[in-house]
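user: can you give me the structure for this one chain? tokens are fine.
assistant: on it. calling the predictor now.
[tool input]
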Amino acid sequence: MNTRWLAAALLLFNSCVLSADQIRSPSAMSQSGPLMMRLIASSVTAANRAGKIIRDVMSQGDLGIVEKAKDDLQTEADRSAQRCIVASLSRQFPNITIIGEEGVSDIEVPSDWLITHGDPEILKKKCPDTLEDITEEDVVVWVDPLDGTSEYTQGFLEHVTVLIGISIREQPIGGVIHQPFWGGSSEDGAGRTIWGLQGFGIEGLPPIPRTKEPIPLIVTTSRSHSNSLAESCLEAMKPEKVLRVGGAGYKVLQLLEGTATAYVFASPGCKKWDTCAPEAILRAAGGSLTDILGRPYNYGSNVSRPNRSGVLAAPTVQMHQALTDLIPEHVKTTLKD
């Protein structure tokens, strides 16, 4: 056999094997397929890495707390987790718009913070037909790197979440909620991630069993920002139980898990990065999140950041409508902007 021909044949064979391996690799997969699935997959991976950063800062003991404004804290975990997420997503998807709670972030990060691929299991899933043709220019990503900072500094670690919300043409379409301390504060088994996408549903939580029996009204609300308007809503709703917890992400998880049946926040304290991911996931699960008057929020890149008219959310659209009807008129009038 001609040795020159044999060498050429072996070279061609090896190049074909390499191409197949590349196609199967996570980094190659993250560069192919519909943009939305790649973005969700990478957001999940980035949120998980940010969760480890948050745990690491806590374990080191120096939280690096600064007060951005009255009752508005920031820690080293907030800053570092956002840098990890923004750097990872902006390098993979350079033309998307990213808006983070902690402002403009330095994207020069340690190499072990930089995520270059998406979750391979998510990349295998089919993208909803309505989202197959979106472009990076259509996307706005809202990042709250540590939702529940006050709770983080006080040791209420189960309330802490990492939030990455994806909006398309001003609407919340996809989201990721990561709980860094779910399962404990050690690395063994710590953390869980829930994600959702319009037209797909959610993953990371078992479905809530449906029953024909009357559902008790259990309201989750802020543990640190109560006021007369909030108390007026609770008086009008007459819930069987009120849960006062921190973080919008954690409150929506309570709805998804069935721990609570309503999320009521009659205050202008929430921001778009607090609600984009939770709203997208709740909607993907069949629920609804709006302002206290029942109006949807806009998540375009040029909108005002504060949710000035509060938050009202429920695990079903029907329950949400019933709750809207219970909000006192003076509360609606006061918070209407």
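assistant: here you go. Residues 1-29 have pLDDT under 50 and may be disordered. The longest strand covers residues 139-147.
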